[in-house]
Amino acid sequence: xxxxLNRRSFVGRAATVAGVAAMAPVLSACGDGGQQQTGGNSASxxxxxxxxxxxxxxxxxDIPSVPNGPDTATGPGFLHYPAEHPTTVSGMPGKGGxxxxxxxxxxxxPPPGNSFFxxxxxxxxxxxxxxxxxxxxxxxxxxxxxxxxxxxxxxxxPT
Length: 159
Fold this sequence. Notes:
Shape: elongated
Distance between the termini: 43 Å
Radius of gyration: 27 Å
Low-confidence stretches: none
Mean pLDDT: 80
Order of helices and strands: HHEHEHE
């Protein structure tokens, strides 16, 4: 294909430009002309929707991170497992109620009500229903749940 401008290509391009120009008023009629609302994907929408990051102070790292530094790509580093484990929750964390979670799983789905899930629910103090999804198709499951507006309380997003 060449970019040669002959009579036929000129007429075709002119017709395209004329068609686009003729459609402009029609397409502008689709909106009310008012100010557009910012959605969840805008910077202000995300700032409202997401919690503020608060770094953990429960352990002193062996290699501290550099906050707000240029080219900072990692968090704090640890060279060995801490001898003393910090307590992050005192008592039972849950106060009843039921919650759902979706996680990717690359294996056999455990039966509902198995002994591990029962012990975990008892320790948490809630009724947590974990719904494992096929890890191989997980990238298509999350958009489907979002489009159907049937989101669980927690979603594990693999990175």
